[in-house]
Design brief:
It is built from nine helices and two strands, in the order ααββααααααα. It is mostly helical. It has one domain. Strands 1-2 form a two-stranded antiparallel sheet.
């Protein structure tokens, strides 16, 4: 009697094991019982590179319609982007500095060099546009009062449009236009004398030192 019971238990266990194995195989084939959620791939981070000295110089010259060689000069004769600040702006100077590779990281003076180059270029453009507003490149037909205040006409908003179009090949958003219009009030509050010219220079500077302008 007992051998038959043991035999029957053994046979049942074999059948049950076989059934469980077949069911597992079926689930693997059909995907039943598996987690159907698919993990999303992590978003790729956009890679940007800063403009090196030559590209930065040429970009500014094109945007502001200036001579790239005379846009910024040290002591009135040494080009900032080509000689004085070439290395700090990411350039390579094999002959003058025995530097045969581009710097891997920004130097401690890179930000100051960029500031000087852009401020010099924007100052030139603002000065030229004020001399002949009718033929201005950026600040066309912008009017100033007798004491140097900015006359808030349609030409001011159009100048902001022109600056963004030449710099980024796009129109500014309403927020960007309003920010620069409001910025004049801050400039005037800080220094009322020459506020219009200062606003022109600093508006140009703020746009052309942005991430969108300094990197690609």
């Amino acid at each position: 009697m007992f051998p038959n019971i043991f035999y029957m238990i053994f046979m049942c266990s074999m059948v049950l094991s076989s059934c469980l194995r077949d069911r597992k195989v079926a689930h693997q084939l059909t995907g039943e019982g598996q987690d159907s959620r698919v993990e999303a791939a992590p978003p790729s981070q956009g890679q940007v590179k800063r403009k090196r000295s030559s590209l930065l110089k040429n970009s500014l010259a094109k945007i502001l319609a200036l001579d790239p060689k005379g846009m910024c000069l040290e002591l009135g004769r040494l080009p900032c982007a080509d000689v004085v600040h070439k290395v700090s702006l990411g350039g390579m100077d094999a002959y003058g500095n025995a530097q045969y590779r581009y710097p891997e990281h920004a130097a401690a003076t890179s930000a100051m060099s960029l500031d000087r180059l852009v401020l010099s270029a924007c100052s030139q453009r603002a000065g030229l546009d004020l001399l002949n507003p009718a033929r201005a490149v950026i600040f066309k037909d912008v009017e100033l009062s007798v004491d140097g205040r900015l006359m808030k006409t349609e030409a001011v908003a159009q100048a902001i449009q022109t600056l963004y179009q030449r710099a980024f090949l796009r129109n500014p958003t309403e927020g960007e236009v309003q920010s620069l219009l409001d910025f004049y009030e801050a400039v005037y509050a800080e220094q009322s004398i020459g506020a219009a010219r200062n606003w022109m220079v600093l508006s140009c500077y703020s746009v052309l030192t942005s991430l969108e302008a300094g990197f690609y």
